[in-house]
């Protein structure tokens, strides 16, 4: 185990090594588990098959998912929240951050790291609410402990909820509506395609909750793969193209085409494709990934 050191507050001191050390320590037992590589291969082939529920519905794969995927994601989200002027400014005063599909911890670690470099303009303690269909409690427990020792200067209240964000059960509708209404920042990273794949009708209902429920000035931050993986076939109930559709070259579109058309949202920052490249010199047992993703930051009008 590497020594956990509270990170230096010096602005010029890069935080990426601290983020990777945090995962090295928090995920040590998973990384050393004899089934870890088997689980990683299983996850990778289920991603190719776009069988997301088989990954996130299987508790024995969740710890491997966190250890293998969340470090790269955290680095990317740290970079995003500490380089975008819109997001940097929002972190100075945000009181409630609602992160949809974020149970695996990537957003939590990235945003906490960015907060450690933020001078807050209010004395209130912000809340980070992680929402996910899967219960990552066991996998995230060591990450919470390690976050506190790595970023002791960050005052952040953590909450989570576990349910299908598309659920129409009254208790779930109330909870998501309440969180959406008080959020200053809502993130949807690598989740909207999955939602669209599960059900277009319920996806549209969820977008309506955002449009109707977000307060004026709140931000919706959306990012997902920029490649063809994110394309959704038009006119089908699923984003998994059938072999016949593939042959007919069904027209496809990206999730942001749908969101860009919403009149209640102003597009504040956008990129149809951008790279996050992690810095040299980071050591982690699993290969870290550079990420090509699209980005949209919408402001509710
Ligand atoms: C590809 S992972 C992305 C995780 C994280 N947002 C990130 O960027 O690292 C998708 C996440 O969305 C969650 N998810 C999938 N369908 C969901 C649903 N219907 N409601 C809530 N969460 C869902 C999965 O459990 C998983 O944690």
UniProtKB/TrEMBL annotation:
Protein name, per record: 25S rRNA (Uridine(2843)-N(3))-methyltransferase
InterPro entries for this protein: Methyltransf_34
Originating species: Chytriomyces confervae
């Amino acid at each position: 185990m590497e020594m956990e050191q509270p990170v230096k507050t010096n602005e010029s001191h890069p935080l990426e090594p601290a983020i990777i050390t945090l995962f090295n320590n928090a995920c040590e037992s998973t990384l050393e588990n004899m089934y870890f590589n088997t689980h990683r291969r299983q996850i990778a082939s289920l991603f190719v098959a776009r069988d997301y529920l088989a990954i996130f519905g299987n508790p024995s794969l969740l710890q491997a998912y966190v250890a293998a995927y969340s470090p790269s994601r955290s680095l990317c989200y740290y970079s995003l929240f500490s380089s975008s002027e819109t997001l940097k400014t929002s972190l100075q005063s945000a009181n409630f951050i609602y992160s949809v599909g974020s149970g695996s911890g990537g957003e939590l670690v990235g945003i906490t790291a960015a907060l450690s470099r933020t001078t807050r303009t209010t004395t209130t303690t912000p809340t980070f609410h992680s929402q996910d269909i899967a219960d990552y409690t066991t996998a995230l427990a060591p990450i919470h402990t390690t976050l506190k020792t790595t970023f002791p200067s960050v005052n952040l209240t953590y909450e989570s909820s576990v349910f299908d964000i598309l659920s129409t059960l009254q208790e779930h509708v109330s909870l998501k509506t309440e969180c959406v209404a008080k959020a200053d920042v809502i993130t949807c990273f690598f989740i909207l395609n999955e939602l669209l794949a599960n059900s277009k009708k319920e996806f549209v209902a969820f977008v309506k909750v955002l449009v109707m429920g977000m307060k004026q000035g709140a931000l919706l931050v959306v990012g997902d793969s920029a490649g063809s993986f994110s394309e959704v076939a038009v006119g089908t109930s699923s984003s998994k193209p059938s072999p016949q559709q593939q042959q007919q070259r069904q027209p496809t579109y990206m999730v942001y085409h749908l969101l860009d058309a919403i009149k209640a949202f102003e597009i504040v920052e956008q990129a149809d494709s951008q790279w996050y490249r992690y810095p040299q010199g980071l050591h982690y047992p699993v290969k870290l990934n550079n990420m090509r993703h699209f980005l949209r930051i919408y402001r509710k009008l």
